[in-house]
Write a structure and sequence with these properties.
mainly alpha; 3 helices; single chain; two-stranded antiparallel sheet
């Protein structure tokens, strides 16, 4: 199990990930060590991603007056992304999408 979460919002213009280090000797610990060794490098790593899966969120909210997002621990990354996307939408449009109030 590799605990990866995309933590960026679609409006961020780049993809950011949160990766939980699962402890000494694990695959994620080795990834952490590798990343730590290249901090400040101008040569970015090539990464392949698959997805996204599921429909975009904002159109799904059009028929709703509210939304409840529950999360905890590293699971907060997805709801946090939603909050940031809603904030970006509000900043640009001076309103929330659909029927959200």
């Amino acid at each position: 199990w590799h605990p990866f979460s995309i933590s960026s919002a679609p409006s961020d213009g780049q993809i950011k990930m949160c990766i939980k280090n699962m402890g000494p000797g694990t695959w994620t610990d080795q990834l952490f060590s590798l990343a730590r060794d290249v901090v400040g490098s101008e040569d970015p790593w090539p990464v392949q991603l698959d997805g996204p899966y599921g429909p975009p969120l904002l159109p799904l909210l059009a028929d709703h007056a509210g939304a409840l997002l529950l999360a905890g621990g590293v699971g907060i990354t997805q709801p946090h992304s939603v909050f940031r996307e809603l904030a970006a939408y509000f900043k640009e449009n001076k309103a929330l999408p659909g029927g959200l109030k």
